[in-house]
Amino acid sequence: MTVLTLRALEKHYGSIKAVDHVDLQLESGEFMAILGPSGSGKSTLMRLVAGLEPPTSGDIIVDGQSVVNVPPQHRNVAMVFQSFALYPHMTVRDNILFPLVSRKVPKQEHEARLQKATSMLGVENLLDRRPSRLSGGQQQRVALARALVRDPELFVFDEPLSALDAQIRSRARAELRELHDQTRITTLYVTHDQVEAMGLADRVAVINEGRLHQVGTPQELYNDPADLFVAGFIGNPPMNLIPLDETTVAGLRPEHMLVDPEEDVPDLLIDLAVTIEHIEYLGSEWLAHGQARAVAGNGQQLHVIARLPASAHPGLVSGQECRMVGQRKDVCLFDRASGKRQVQAEVPA
Ligand SMILES: Nc1ncnc2c1ncn2[C@@H]1O[C@H](COP(=O)(O)OP(=O)(O)OP(=O)(O)O)[C@@H](O)[C@H]1O
C-alpha cells in the first residue's frame, strides 16, 4: 500500500505555470480524481508523478521517499491513457505481458500473473486477438490488465474512459471502481468529466490554471464549495451565482431555487424577478432558465436556472414573468474580490 505526497510541486513552461505550487496527499489505497477544465494542468501533473517530465521545483514523495530523481522505468507507477496505447502488432497476450518482459521479470512468473490480471478483467478469452479486433470496451480492459500485471504501487489514469461510447462508459466506470475495491491500489485519476470524478473517486482535487482550488469528497465539493471557481464548475448545471452587494456573491443550487412559491418562505435571502427564457425537459426533471432583473441594484441582467422534479410541471412558458427565491440556509456566500467562501459569521443580516 502506497502513500503519495506532492509537496510545493511546480512545472513551468516558459511563462506558463502548468502546475502551480500543488500540495496534495493521497492516502494508502485511496482513489483520487484530479478534475479540471481543458488546459488546467491535469496531464502535466500526471506526467510529473509518472516521471515522464521533471518538475521545475517541489517534491514527489512515495512512502516517505522522494522519487523526483528516479527515472520512470524505476517508478512502480502503471499508467493507463485515453488512447489505451496498445501495441497493434502484438496479440493481447503479448501486450499484457509486455511490462513483465521489459522489466525482465522471470519467465516462470508470467503465466500466473497473466492469469490473475486477465481473470480480474474478464479478458481471458481474448488472448490471441490483436487490438484491432477488439471493441473499445475490450481494449480498455486489456489496457487495464496490462497496467495491473506488473503489480504497481500506484495507478495513474489519464481520461481512460473518454474514448468509449456513452452507453458503455457508465458500465466501464463501475468496473473500474470494482477493480479498485479489489486491489486497493492507490490511484490518481485525471479527468475533465465531473460525473466520472464524482462517481468514481473517494476524494476529488479540483484544479484550474495549475492551482488546486479544493480537495474533498464529492459531497463536500457539492455542498461546500471553497470558492467561486468550484461553485461554478461542480454540478450540472452549476450553482447560480448571484451578486448580493458590492462585496458578496450568493451561490444557490438550481434545486434550491424555488419558483413562484405559493406560501410564505421563511428566511429569504434571494428574491428575484425573473423572465423565463426557456423550459428544458430532461425526463427526470425540468430546468427553468430565466433572466433575473436588477440584480444587486445595478440593473445588471443575470442568467438563472431552477431545477424542478419531473412530477412538478412548472406550468411556465417562455417570456413569462415569475419569482425565484432562495432561503438563507441553502445559500453559500463568497467574497466577490477574492472568490473565497465567506465564513458564516460574515453573513449579512
Ligand atoms: N510541453 C509543453 N510545452 C509548453 N506548454 C505546455 C506543454 N505541456 C502543457 N503545456 C501548457 O500547460 C498548461 C496545462 O496543460 P495540460 O496538458 O497539463 O492541461 P490539461 O488539464 O491536461 O488539459 P486537457 O484536458 O486539455 O488535456 C496548458 O496551458 C498547456 O498549453
From TrEMBL:
Pfam families in the cross-refs: ABC_tran
PROSITE patterns, A to Z: ABC_TRANSPORTER_1, ABC_TRANSPORTER_2
GO molecular function, one term: ABC-type ferric iron transporter activity
Gene3D superfamilies associated with the record: 2.40.50.100, P-loop containing nucleotide triphosphate hydrolases
Any GO CC annotation of this UniProt entry: ATP-binding cassette (ABC) transporter complex, substrate-binding subunit-containing
SUPFAM superfamilies assigned: MOP-like, P-loop containing nucleoside triphosphate hydrolases
Keyword Protein biosynthesis: no
Matching InterPro entries: AAA+_ATPase, ABC_transporter-like_ATP-bd, ABC_transporter-like_CS, ABC_transpr_FbpC, ABC_transpr_MalK/UgpC-like, Mo/tungstate-bd_C_term_dom, P-loop_NTPase
Superkingdom classification of source: Bacteria
UniProt signal peptide: none
Key word Transmembrane present: no
Keywords: ATP-binding, Cell membrane, Membrane, Nucleotide-binding, Translocase, Transport
Domain ABC transporter: residue ranges: 4-234
Protein name according to UniProt: ABC transporter ATP-binding protein
Organism: Marinobacter adhaerens
